[in-house]
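Entry for the shared binder. Reason: the reviewer on the internal report wants the predicted structure included alongside the sequence.
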Amino acid sequence: MRGLLLFLGAWVAASLVLDSYLCRSMALDPAQWRQKEASLQQQPVHVKADRMELRRQESLILYTGNVSVTQPQYKMYSDLLEVRWDPETRKIGHLVAKGKVLLEAEDARASCGVAILDVAAQEVEMQESPRMTQAGEHVEGERILYSLSQKRSTVLGGRGGRVRTLVIPGGKR
């Protein structure tokens, strides 16, 4: 199950390689992270979509239609991707993926209707039927919140709904 929780940290790394501190969210020792960080920062990030719209006045880039964000180890697909940046620092502040969001990293997958990454808060929120799967195990609920800095995941069941988890004893590794 730990691998499922680490999956969101991997998605962040693929989400345009924002900042090196985001990569430290996974449970690897510091030497492994330095190596992985260096590798990710040197890998190109490819964003493809049917359309891209730049709105400088709003500090916003909109990618629409068959959006894919790929790096060699990570992939994200959605119908729409909003990228917001701070006009003074030019650093990315928020990413919002909407519509049939699918995140893939190595043997892990996550899907939802909306995924929101707040870079400053180091938080990822998955909404609209989020589900994370790895090695046959899965977790789902109404919302999944993941704190990158605290390496903590919270799954909320919502109105009358419950959190659902499948854990395989010993796991498939």
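Summary line for the report: The two ends are 11 Å apart (CA to CA).
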